[in-house]
Every structure is written in C-alpha cells, then in structure tokens.
Amino acid sequence: MSKKGxxxxxxxxxxxxxxxxxxxxxxxxxxxIATSAGVPQGNMFYYYPTKADIALAVAEIxxxxxxxxxxxxxxxxxxxxxxxxxxLRRLQQSNRSRMERGCPIALAVRDFRxxxxxxxxxxxxxxxxxxxxxxxxxxxSGLRPSQALSRSRALIAEWQGGIALAHAFSDMTILAESFxxxxxxLGRAFSGPRSGDA
Length: 198
Prior knowledge:
CATH topology of the largest domain: Tetracycline Repressor, domain 2
Distance between the termini: 55 Å
Structural class: mainly alpha
Order of helices and strands: HHHHHHHHHH
Strand content: under 5%
Number of domains: 2
Radius of gyration: 19 Å
Number of strands: 0
Number of helices: 10
CATH architecture of the largest domain: Orthogonal Bundle
C-alpha cells in the first residue's frame, strides 16, 4: 500500500480508538469513524474490510504504545525497583482521562469480545505485557517467579480497580489512592524479608 494509504489506515485506526473509548464499539458506526478520520465512507472498506478489522487495528495501537512504555522503562535505570516505579509514574500520567472515560484497553477487551474476538485478545495482550515486565523486574528482588507474577498481577488489578471506581464516582482521589497502594506494594516487594517467601 502507498504511503498515503498507510497514513489513511493510521488515521482511521486513531479515529476509531478515540470513538470506541468515548462511545463504545457498538455506538461507533463505520460512518462515524470515516467522518472522524476524514475519509470518504465509501473508501473505508478499501482500508479495512470489516469493523472487526478496525478493532484489530485499534488493539495493535494499544500494543505498540505498551511496548514503547515497557521499552522506556527497561532502560531508565539500572535498578529494577526504579524501572517499576517509572512504569507506574507513566501509567499515572493518564489518570485524568481514565477517571473521565475509563480504561480504553479494558473497554476494548470487553466491547470487542463478541464481534471481534481476535481484537479483544490482542487488546488483552497489553495487560499481559505490563504484567510480564513487572513480574520479571520484581523477580530480581529474590522472590520466586510465581510470587513475583502474583504481585505483578496485584499491581495491575489495583490500577484497573482504581480506574473503575474513579470512573464510576468521578473521583480522582480514588485512583490516587490506588497508586499510593501500588507504591507501597512495590516497596514491600523490593525490601521485604525473604525468609517467609520460601
């Protein structure tokens, strides 16, 4: 496909990601996406044959952004704890939009599941990559892999739970509290005794 074609595909996917986040997958028509992307509706099928293909492109955006975040975190410090804290600070930068709209990744996983299951699974991989990165870093503290994975999942569950409640109550304080608990959990993971972890 030409460079112009690639640019249009990217514009469509970006417009769809925003619409799906604001209106939901079912509430965003092909026509809505075309209008937002500045592409004639009759040309949409040239770039994406189905709405499920657009959903998959949106999931790929999430994965690229997650991979970029993990890559940044991996090189920010020689210390594993600081790499984890960098990741959390970057996640925290999106608190306001997530409090207002919810988590776009979680919404995509849910909304794509019936009509675009491949896209749903790909979107969920963003969470997997965050969990895997944190588990590997936490594992450097001396915890067993299963324990490091459990703590990593708990961190992402805390983040997602905080988003859900902050969104439900339109209260940023709830999400801020979640990040404080995540910070404390990281501190325990890297400085806690290991004798009882065997």
